[in-house]
Amino acid sequence: MSASREPVRAAVRTAARRAGDGPAAVSHDESHAVVERLGAALSLAGFPPMPSRVFAALLVDDDGRMTAAELSEELSVSAAAVSGAVRYLGHVGLLRRERERGGRKDVFVVLDDAWHGALTSTDQIYAPIIAALSDGVQHLGAETAAGARLQLSQEFLEFVTVEMSGIIHRWDAYKRAR
Fold it and tell me: What class has domain 6-111?
């Protein structure tokens, strides 16, 4: 964590604890261990390793906001590695880029409910795949084995797209009730 931000964050956490309205502070060693475990789990699930670690670092960070330099320092990686990771994470909708208040540096921000937006962007995720599958079925013919596989894949993704709307509504209701 950047030396310049840590005293401010520690003071905010201490003030929040004293006021009784904030979570207890987590040590840097504990948060680093969580980042590495979560990053490894995301990698095992198929995410590229560096974006996994960057996403985990942002999720674990108290305010979910870090500059490229802070991410590089926190993860002990090069600026180029961070650059590629944030580009990937922005593309899949797991973070957004903002300008640092009063400055020229970019700040990378993860939303508290980051998975919601990333996994429910069915138009961006599934529409191009469905269109390519449909094109493949037309070219190969639905009566061929390959065409039938493509057709089944297309139907599954169309099903998921329709069902995602219901999942979003149930999730929103769940969040309101918790």
Answer: mainly alpha
Phi, psi dihedrals of residue 51, rounded to the nearest 5°: -60, -35
Three-state SS for 96? Answer: strand
Q: What are the residue boundaries of the structural domains of the chain, listed by start?
A: 6-111, 121-177
Q: How far apart are CA 109 and CA 86, in angstroms?
A: 10
Q: Which of 64, 42, 62, 66 is nearest to 53 (CA)?
A: 42
List pLDDT tens digits, range 115-128: 887 777 777 788 99
Q: What number is the average pLDDT over the span 5-23? A: 46
**Span 8-19, mean pLDDT?**
43
The CA distance from 173 to 74, in Å, is 36
pTM of the model: 0.74
Residue 9: is it exposed, middle or buried by C-beta count within 10 angstroms (0-12/13-18/19+)? middle
Position 102, amino acid: G
Number of helices (H) and strands (E) in the chain: give both, helices first: 9, 3
d(CA 63, CA 29): 18
Residue 76 DSSP class? T
pLDDT digit string (tens) for 146-168?
A: 999 999 999 999 999 889 888 98
